[in-house]
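Supplementary Note 3. Input sequence used for the single-chain structure prediction.
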Amino acid sequence: MTDIPSDAPSTPAEDADDKGERIAKRLARAGLCSRRDAERWIAEGRVSVDGKVLSSPALVVTEQSRILVDGKPIPEPERSRLWRYHKPSGLVTSHKDPQGRPTVFERLPEDMPRVISVGRLDLNSEGLLLLTNDGELARRLELPSTGWVRRYRVRIHGTPDVAQLASLEKGITVDGISYGPIKALLDRQQGSNAWLTVSLKEGKNREIRRVMDHLGWSVSRLIRVAYGPFQLGLLEEGQVDEVPSRVIKEQLGGKGSQKPVGTATAHATDKPGIGKSQGVGKPGAPRPNTGKATSSRENTSSSRKPANANRRRPS
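The predicted structure, written as discrete structure tokens, is reproduced below.
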């Protein structure tokens, strides 16, 4: 074990080598939690390394280090895995909800390993939510520096002014909170409602709803259709689809241009829309919450549970 500065740079999970890695990152790679949660666990005295309870995350561990959380050995790091999930409206993006509301993780297939979300979608938002078993990977995909655009279809009540929409590309400040550039395009007006396509790179908490409300338009429906190269595509509501490891490496390794993942055809991303061709249904007709999520490959692979599916994890 080696003490290191707390601001030492880290590398992606797949790049860990014999020199070791920071303890918080190691816990995240084991699929137990995010790196931020790992640092909190350490501060709470829940983590020990080689018999010593840690009080700081400024520690490098190796494969030979004996790491315990709540007195239990942590599992070996799994390969990084990523899933696309079509989140229905009405689910909280949290493992536990103090108010007892249903959560995303309660509705996932039983044969999935423990996963965390890449960012969040609020209770009444729906669409693409990325899930991973690797806390370090989740952190990397969430960072604005990744430069990935999050794209949404948004239904508002009101008649938007095209000039106001265009002004959002310069950024806007609402109630003391500064938001970066937002690209908002009017798709069509339907009576007193309008559909917009909204793209942004940062995605602060309830950003779209707050900005639209500030402009005088209440949001009645919000659907994420893309997160970087990953698309909602043909994924049905409540369905889960694993992204192949090869695709993850291609998208994160910077090899060539980004290719859309999850669309029936590449040109479908030129003008994202919610329609039958993308398997989501018409924007004005939300689907009912059907309960448990299903895998898009369940007819061929649902019987093959991951080897660690039933492994107990520290809570």
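Residues 1-17, 264-290, 298-315 have pLDDT under 50 and may be disordered. Residues 2-73 form a domain with the Structural Genomics Hypothetical 15.5 Kd Protein In mrcA-pckA Intergenic Region; Chain A fold (CATH 3.10.290.10).
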